[in-house]
Amino acid sequence: MIITDFTHKHIEQAMNLVQQNYKEERQVIPSLPENTIIPDLTDLAENNLGVAALEGEHLLGFLCCYGPWEHAFGTNARGVFSPLHGHGVLSGDKESIYRMLYQKAAEKWIMQEITYHSISLYSHDEQAKRAFFTYGFGLRCIDAIRTMERIEVKQSNNIKIKRIEQGDIPGIRPLREQLSVHLSESPCFLYSTEQEFQSWLTRAEVRNSVIYAGFEKEEIIAYIEVIHGGENFVTENTAMMSICGAYCKPEKRGEGIVQNLLNAMIADLAREGYQQLGVDYESFNPNAYKFWSKYFESYTNSVTRRIDEAILKKRKEGYYDL
Fold first, then answer.
1. CATH code linked to domain 149-274
2. Which of 44, 148, 202, 216 has a CA-to-CA distance to 30 between 20 and 30 Å?
């Protein structure tokens, strides 16, 4: 077996590997859509950041990524991201092949001063997770899914739930502000400057989303927002919608309000023909992790590793030569 650059000639076999790995995860999570479209891999073959494991002309595995981009995850580091369709390995000794692929890819990335490495893995691909966890990666983000079935929860009689119109969206601004504050606190530490938050708020208030809000008298105390499309190719399925925002006032939690919002949304989306509902959340957000993992099934684990930037200085000084 040799590890070489990923090029156009590997695309067809690579797409077959992606499809095969998706089918493996779907055997564990049957709520995943059966019919999915694998994105084109041309861009991944042209940025010279990917690698392939070959036995003769037979592709055993590959690891590609998007990027690089500056200020990855709000840091001063350059980063790359390998999405679900950006890698794949044949069943068998996946762990060893992933280790060799990453070792070669990481050499390429460091040559371009890319020190923040991220990759989206299937939640139940234990060999792949073990390969990256033992190479210094940690869990950061989770994608999860459920079918459009009602959650068993007591009805909130004193809470009015309705789908809000575009003109009413500014009414949930205070909740979005509280969510931003929550994400900046321990253990999340996802800080946004006021300028960054206002920029995000402007984009959020004009995107083509569907929002359900819970009202106590005239005050909005909770909301859930969904949109078509998400963080991976699975979410592009036409029968799937994805949650892109949710928050409930802390003093109102534990009353089943968000569950009732979900039920109202699920009932409407099911009538419109949607079959799956997705959500993505940070694993280090304790509230999100506890809630979403109770009602949704995880199918991805996105992991990250940040290399000590001192290696870049040492390489420039000649102490380390790739």
1. 3.40.630.30
2. 44
